[in-house]
Amino acid sequence: MTGTSPSDFAKRLDKTADDTEALLGRLLSDDILHDEIARPKRLMDAMRYSSLNGGKRLRPFLVVESAAVFGVSREAALLVGAALECIHCYSLIHDDLPAMDNSDLRRGRPTLHKQTDDATAILAGDGLLTLAFDIVTRDEIHRDANVRLLLTRALARCAGIGGMVGGQILDLAGEGRFGGNEPIDVARIQQMKTGALLRYGCIAGAILGQASSAEYQALDDYGRALGEAFQIADDLLDVEGDAAALGKPAGADAVLGKTTFVTQLGIEGAKQRVRDLLARADSAVSIFGDRAAVLQAAARFVAERKN
């Protein structure tokens, strides 16, 4: 890994995961905040079930490491990362529901609707989504209210109709859920459904660091390449991976009839595409010199992951 050894990278990733876990634990405590009336136990338990004790926390890691390029406070970056992780966890809860992907297993244990019920799962997802915007607007993230506004707007757009949510409905359409024979643009679907939140993890650091236009563009380009590489690696794992390592059933895409990068490019073509994307990601952040070493290592981690 360029400039960062595998062991050093793993330690940094684990440290951010631990810090994010602790922060989410505090944010999801039973303590009632100003302007809140109550925090119902069933709702809080469900939100904690789906957001604590699991995951690599890659998205918060990208926020922390992209912000570190500009010397931004780790505490501020972790708060933004926690907001992003709330969005990610809510999306997984809803994606697993019977009306969506109808999954029984997530991170090696029952999905939330299996552990509780559909209504609780829906509301827990709603709770995490709205909590994310509570977190990302907090004063301690940045003294400049305009920075907080830009972070909030970017998060809404990456998570919403032109990002993740829009990508999800295009993905369902690609399964034939709504009839018709619209052409399937896999790259566009995954740029929205999966890539948008990963990209946010990168541009959030640029926004926090009040980056120049060139610096912002570099992290934007890097985030887009990393997001696509992540999805292709995910498609490959669905074909070649082991369910025990994945923590969810393998082969789910084929069962659902999804068109993926692997079905379009073939296994070897998909692997070559990942290599091309890694080169693009490396090149994008080369303007930062040695400060980009961890980000370059992160792109390799995404491409080479086993779960």
Structural descriptors:
307 residues, mainly alpha, Farnesyl Diphosphate Synthase, two-stranded antiparallel ribbon, 15 helices
CATH homologous group name: Farnesyl Diphosphate Synthase
State the low-pLDDT regions, or none: none
Q: Please give the share of residues in helix.
A: 55-70%
Estimated share of beta-strand residues: under 5%
Mind telling me the CATH class?
Mainly Alpha
| Main sheet attributes: strand count, strand direction, barrel closure | 2 strands, antiparallel
Keywords: Isoprene biosynthesis, Magnesium, Metal-binding, Transferase
Protein name: Probable farnesyl diphosphate synthase
Cofactor: Mg(2+)
InterPro entries: Isoprenoid_synthase_dom_sf, Polyprenyl_synt, Polyprenyl_synt_CS, Prenyl_diphosphate_synthase
3D architecture notes:
GO terms for molecular function: metal ion binding; prenyltransferase activity. Its cofactor is Mg(2+). Keywords: Isoprene biosynthesis, Magnesium, Metal-binding, Transferase. This is Probable farnesyl diphosphate synthase. The chain has about 300 residues and is mainly α. It has one domain: Farnesyl Diphosphate Synthase, CATH 1.10.600.10. Helices cover about 70% and strands about 0% of the residues. The protein is built from 15 helices and 2 strands. It has a two-stranded antiparallel sheet with strand order 1-2. β1 and β2 form a beta hairpin. The chain starts with 5 loop residues before the first helix and ends with a helix. The model has no long low-confidence stretch (mean pLDDT about 90).
